[in-house]
Design goal:
It is a single chain. By secondary structure, the chain is mainly alpha-helical. The chain has one domain (22-82): Orthogonal Bundle (DNA polymerase, domain 1). It contains four helices and two strands; from the N terminus they run H-E-H-H-H-E. Strands 1-2 form a two-stranded parallel sheet. It is elongated. It starts with a helix and ends with a strand.
């Protein structure tokens, strides 16, 4: 029984990850950015403000220049972040 439950939970997580899709940080709105792990409304608004002030992000790593975005947050979302 436990094995079945664990298998179900794992499959659900994988399905959610695929469903969640990627986010282009150069085009996304604050509400779209807020869907990333560890990015709430405030950080999403900071990303948009930084993008408007400094231009598009060249790579995901550039998000580290945004206040409140650290290496752990970037690592949690690296597979979902697009810049093109």
């Amino acid at each position: 029984m436990w094995k079945s439950m664990i298998t179900f939970l794992f499959a659900s997580l994988v399905s959610f990850s695929v469903w969640a899709g990627s986010v282009n940080v150069n085009e996304a709105s604050a509400s779209e950015l807020a869907q990333l792990n560890g990015i709430g409304k405030v950080k999403a608004e900071r990303i948009v403000a930084y993008r408007e002030a400094n231009g598009e992000f060249d790579e995901a790593q550039d998000l580290l220049s945004v206040k409140g975005i650290g290496t752990k947050t970037l690592a949690k979302n690296r597979d979902r972040i697009e810049v093109e």
